[in-house]
Amino acid sequence: MEKWSLMTITVLLALTVRWTVSLGSYSGAGKPPMYGDYEAQRHWQEVTYNLPVRQWYFNTSDNNLLYWGLDYPPLTAYHSYVCAYIAKLINPDWIALHTSQGYESQPHKLFMRTTVFVADLLVYIPAVILYCFSLKETSTKKKASICALCILLYPGLILIDHGHFQYPLSLGFALWAVLCLSYDWDLLGSMAFCLALNYKQMELYHSLPFFCYLLGKCFKKGLKGKGLVLLTKIAGTVVASFAVCWLPFCTDMEQIMQVLRRLFPIDRGLFEACMFSSPPPRLANIWCSLSVFIKIKNIISPQTQLKLSFAVTFLSILPTCIKLTVQPSLRLFKFALVSCALSFFLFSFQVHEKSILLVSVPVCLIINEIPFMATWFLLVSTFSMLPLLLKDGLLLAYAVTTLAFLSLCLASFSILEKTSAEDLQLKPFSLSLKGRASWFKSFPKMVRSLFLLSVALMGVLSLLSAAAPPPQRLPDMFPLSVAIVSCLHFLLFLVYFNVVILWDSKNSRTQKKIS
Predict the structure, then answer these.
(1) What CA–CA distances, in Å, run from 349 to 134, 285, 286, 450, 506?
(2) Quick check: helix, strand or coil at residue 437?
(3) pLDDT tens, residue by residue, 31-52
(4) Where are the alpha helices (DSSP H) in 395-504?
(5) Is 63 helix (H, G, I), strand (E, B) or coil?
(6) Could you report the per-residue pLDDT of 202-242, keeping only the tens digit for each?
(7) Cα–chain-centroid distance for residue 94?
(8) E strand or H helix at 392, and its extent?
(9) Phi-psi region for residue 470, left (φ > 0), alpha (ψ -120 to 50) or beta?
(10) What are the transmembrane regions (predicted)?
């Protein structure tokens, strides 16, 4: 009873924060002609309800793809249809074909915010709670509740979902997949991840760790026995899940190809989501940061950009994928989710600033193992989206939720006391140096100093971005500074996570044998 009372308080607090943030502004409010992501979600409801399935992804007189054309997988479209069906019962004007474009009203805002709230309550929040109770490190009820509260109060996801406007379903399904794999429910985990991937194609960031972990398990069981049976079952589950999701579009090949063209518009070039011409640049990945100094888009063709980003991304994730396949373990799998997603964010094609959430949520899953580095990363990830949050009028929500999250982590995990090589899981790496790095003795103090310097720098840049006018000669100075500072942080985090993974020694000693 005590367990559920603590968790009930945790959930109520998380819901209260979400609802409070949702009372504020949203993406594109009152900004015609395109408005923002709020209007995009409303428009998809309009399209999916009023048009036949075969027209959802095609440019027609009733479906102008240049005006927030549907560019997510079928599960997003089905979800939009369900929301539209309910909206039609309340007020048909909300989804009326053509005439509802740009529709804004307080009742409609309440409806749209409620749909996000319900999605969070039904999918994402239960996955977080069950995950925290499944952890061995959170064996007590209080520890599990604290861990869940820290994850649920991560400001980045709250601000984007309930402020900017976005649904948490793909990340929620991915969390359910991780939870299922932690209980060795591999088929359910595979199905849950297929749902995540069929809701948003950006879940490809997590696909290789899922693939390598499950393939490694099959190898361990033996591909001539139980391993082959498991591999066949997993393959069948994946094919069946995709077949069900894509069934309405399988009437002819042109339907399938059009959906794929909408999901992967490679002709737009490397910087399609960087918005490097107007509005000002604000993406904290390597290509957009480098383009401040080297105009990549002017010297490299779009096809070469695609090949370059693919090569760099592939090389950056290869060591982690090999290690995970050879030594499959749940702990290594969670770290691999972080490392691979971060590599995709930094190096892959057509990244959006919100994509950092695909890294942040896996980081939340290991906050109990490396609370110091996880807290630091989650603060930086929220800071990296600052230009977008300021554009949406979410400054106050950003400041309050970020400070509250930092205070909670300081109080719950005592993060400033957990900076030793062992706490940061760098002990195997330090031992491999065999005394050649005497600076490891002062490592805790150095890391704490870097953290405090980082927090101070983010605080100053946040204040300047919000309150100070930029120099006339450098109107984009603050968004650029946020992007470059964040990118440098992410590069250092990528090195850190790869060192932890590649020098990992716990798997062979503590991970239960897969039989």
Answers:
(1) 35, 10, 11, 31, 34
(2) coil
(3) 888 888 999 999 999 999 999 9
(4) 395-413, 427-432, 443-467, 477-502
(5) strand
(6) 999 999 999 999 999 999 998 888 999 999 999 999 999 99
(7) 29
(8) none
(9) beta
(10) 110-133, 145-167, 173-197, 227-249, 332-349, 356-383, 395-416, 450-468, 480-503
Question: Residue 353 carries which side chain, given as an amino acid letter?
Answer: E
- Which residue do the tokens 């939870």 mark? 179
Q: How far, in Å, CA of 7 to CA of 9, rounded? A: 5
Q: Which amino acid is at 328?
A: P
Domain spans in the chain, listed from the N-terminal domain onward: 283-433+440-505
CA angle at residue 260 from 262 to 343, to 5 degrees?
85
DSSP state of 161: I
DSSP H or E stretch at residue 80: helix 74-90
Query: Can you name the residues that pair with 60 across neighbouring β-strands?
Result: 63
Q: Report DSSP state, residue 120.
A: I
Query: Residue type for 160, please?
Result: I
Pull the structure tokens for residue 101: 């474009």
> Tokens in use for 10?
């945790």
- Structure-token match 């983010």, residue found: 458
Does an H or E element contain 177, and which? helix 169-182
- Structure-block tokens of residue 444: 């805790």
Take residue 51 and report the two structure tokens written for it: 């048009």
Q: Let me know how many helices (H) and strands (E) the chain has, helices first.
A: 24, 0
User: How many CB atoms neighbour CB 287 within 10 A?
Assistant: 25
CA atoms of 424 and 79, how far apart (whole Å):
41
